[in-house]
Amino acid sequence: MSENSKKIEKATLWDWVKAICTLVVVGVVCYKIYLTPIALTVDFPTLLSLLLALFSVGLAALFYFKATETSNTFYDNTYNFTKDIAQLLAKIESGFGEKLRNLDEGYSSVRDYIQNNSSSSKEIDDTKQKIEGEKQEIEKVLEERNKIVRQLLEQSQLQEEEKEAVANQLAEKEKELEASQRELTRMNKKLFVERIRRREEREIDPRMEEFTKDFIVRELDPDLIVKLPPSRIRRKVDEVLNQAPRQYIEDLEKHGFFENGINSDGINFIRRLAKELI
């Protein structure tokens, strides 16, 4: 223990020596600096250059912070605008998007019907009723769409320019409806031409119907003909027609049922006969 105590006393003594030497050196340096004459002479051009340099640095820093703030504000506004647009479009889509899809399905069914239906005046009247119903549905969708758009724009917190941008994006919906209306007009014209063509067609010979029932319908099974899709019916009927008499093929061509194989009108004709046998 005595040796350790001696070491501690020696270390403490050495620390005091170093501290006293440091104070002496610092004191001498300070005294020397105090005695040394210092004359700062700055002329006007140098002072002006220094001030301009400091002003430039300050202006650059101010511009940087202001640009950063403006950029952040711009990105925040862009994000909020995009989010508001997405919410608006989601609400509009939920309001009448389903009706637009129903209209599209209705147009497709009516189009297929006009292209593939049989020569029946009752079915033509049904088609006319469907078209009238589609017209009323279009008017209803337009009215609901305009109402929803007005309500959403009035309730939104967007600026006038942003509302105008929303209206421009919604113009695509307007184009879809206009295309649907043009399609409806085209179908009306086609229906008129189809009705005139059918008036000029001759009635199908009952003997041809009976031969078709015996040669094709009963051969393929009436229930199967009604259930199968048109593509499979066409394939099966063409296989049977490969063995059909030439006169029968000519009769099918004369009535517009055969064009390098059974066509859509011919499939509808065979399906109608199959339903009569069920």
TrEMBL record:
The chain crosses the membrane at residues 12-34, 46-65. The keyword Membrane applies. Residues 117-190 form a coiled coil. Keywords: Coiled coil, Membrane, Transmembrane, Transmembrane helix. It comes from the Bacteria. This is Uncharacterized protein. It comes from Marinobacter nauticus (Marinobacter hydrocarbonoclasticus).
